[in-house]
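Listing 4. Sequential folding, example run.
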Amino acid sequence: MNRQPGLSVRFKLTLSYAGFLMFAGLLLLAAVWVFLLRYVPDRAMLINPDDRLKGVFPVRSVLLNVFVPRAAAVLAFLLAFGLVGGWVLAGRMLSPLTRITDATSMAGKGSLSHRIRLPGRKDEFRELADAFDTMLARLEAHVAEQRRFAANASHELRTPLAISQALLDVARNDPTQDLGEIIDRLHTVNTRAIDLTEALLMLSRADQRSFSREPVDLSLLVEEAIETLLPLAEKRGVTIETSGDVAPAFGSQALLLQLTTNLVHNAIVHNLADRGTVWLETGAGPEAVVLTVENRGEKLSPRLVSTLTEPFQRGTDRVRTDHAGVGLGLAIVRRITEVHDGSLTITPRPQGGLRIEVQLPVPPALSPKDI
């Protein structure tokens, strides 16, 4: 934004200090006039009877002739003192602001690793500096995450495109190849690329918070997700068990349905073969509604579990089986939870598998007795 040049804050503060000092001096002189000089007679000539004081008692005009030049000199001194002292004091007071401005300029040039770290006791400038440091830390982490995501997304999208190109080259250069098999493989690769693109769009939509909020019952979304994924569970021999009560939340029904579907899909796919089990439970409390999803599976370390919400991370090997997912399921779950002001907790089960808990705030319009 282009602005016309103006006076600096330091100069304005200097003028304020000097002006306040001059105003205080004028008030003092006015007090001297009101409470002292106005009571001195202007014409009467009084002989002082005290022998130690020779001459006449000074009248008002004489006092004014003596007092005014000296008062003017004092005011001039106060003006100079106020300007110099105000300039120094304003510089000391605004020095933290200079550091904040320098840090802002560095951040604007792309250096997000710089921190102000303003020393001293807590005051308004230090609160501003600490808030700015916190903002820079979050922004740096977000930019780093976006860069990792962009790199991973480019890699994931490049893979199906490269496979498609290779299959097309084979079909063109080797007429003896079975075209039906090549078409089936192209269909599989293309389906995966479409799924990945849709997942990326869903993640982008959640990041932008471009959705309307409405009352949503998580228990009904769980039933809908189970109905959609039941054929997959039956194919893999996974049993789904549900329990809990009504769980009223407030948010986007489409995004929360995507969250629930991703959790159920993840629990089915990453489960034991032929004897897996998925447990789903919904509940509501005074401050939050809870959706819990547990499954059997391989034993996972806490360190590995902590990375599962990163884009394109999986708990097991990156296999390309049917319905293996695109590595964005839990990343989307985390973002949808965050944009709904909720919390996501993922912990490994001692017997193997995961326990995932999503907590969302209770709708403001609902009191605990209404739940």
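-- end of first protein; second protein begins --
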Amino acid sequence: MISLFLRAAMLLLLALSLPSTVNAAATAILAPAEEQAAPEEQPAAPALPIEAQQDAGEDERIENRIGQIFRQIPSFENVGVSVSEGVVQLSGTVPKEEDIERAEALAAQVRGVATVENSIERDVSLGSGISFVQQLNDAFRDFVKLLPLIALAIGVAAAIGFVGYLLAGLSSLWNRIAPNAFLAELIASAIRFAFVIGGIVVALDMIGAGALLGAILGGAGIIGIALGFALRETVENYIASLMLSLRQPFRANDHVLIEGFEGRIIRLTSRATILMTLDGNHVRIPNGQVFKAVITNFTRNPARRIEFDLGVDADDDITAARRLARDTIADLPYVLDDPPPEARIVEVGDSNVVIRVLGWIDQRETDLFKAKSRMIPAVKTVLEDAGFGLPEPIYRLRFDPRSAKLPLETFEAVSGRDKAAGKEIGGTEEAPASRPRQPRPSEEDHDVRPENEVARMVDEERAAAPNEKDLLDSGRPIE
């Protein structure tokens, strides 16, 4: 009887809704073209109709059905279900946050459910660690199942890395391609690194660990930036070593001046330039500093100029003294004719006129310091023999207060006493006779052959360690 009444009610509702349906269809037909052309929106899924009256035993049926479903899912074993008038009450705990929404969605799909009141919470207690142990157990089982694939991925990564090491081991090929050994080693290292990283990427992709790969690459980028700031000087030296090996600004045993350090080059390493100073000490200059420094290379040009100053009495013929000094060094056998020697008047001093004497020598045949130590006494002796005075600086001392003035009469009296004292001491007021002549330089004093003891020590050190890495290549053009 009740079922017949329900059927009659449903037919009545359908009849009442039919006019509105017809009116809606007519409105859609008569609507303007613009409204018909508007994009259609996906209508929301209609909710299931709720029965006006519930059959006897319907709540029990719904509760049993939901319970049967939840008992098949291990995550829902602690979930309780109760139903009243089609309203499902869910309570209990689940191991994961996403299981809460999953339980609600499953309960709502059962026929006859009006709504779901979800009171499930995630189990975060330590005492009930059953779900956590179960998760560990599941993860271990998954790992065991994944072991063959992991072994295969490791094998593929090892094979790719092995190929990279084989290619990097072709040192003869990279030495022919690269301009120097340092760059060849850098290319080999880059190949090894690229193949190892490629093998790791392929292996992680095979086991489906793409997210892990992204995290590793992101962490590596951050660590790389931090290391870049921390090792800035080291990286700068490394790049400077590469640039110096390509530019070749000097050769081994070149006589150079770098940042105030003068000496001969021993070798150029990947971190520093090793220099032997003229007194035999080793100096290691960082390549970053060498690359930015002003380098004076005394070996590049074999001709080198020697210059020194001599002061001639201002009362003498300065032009004649200049010509005599120039002709004197021109007659020396170790002074080059081209460029020609020269003597210049550079300044008027307090008690003399300064003449600067310049002459060129060939460093391959003449020692710089020997030649200079021979040229200075040669010019000095010739000028003195010709009667030119080479006065020393003359200073006037005053013992009276600064504000007091020396009267002319006092000055003449003092001068007279000085002359009288000179007569009493020397018997005459004139200068004593000229000093006895010094012996002329012998032929042995003209030996200006280069000794090059530092160059010899550098050659011996390089020969004693032939396997030391040296970025200087005599076969490449020098900068």
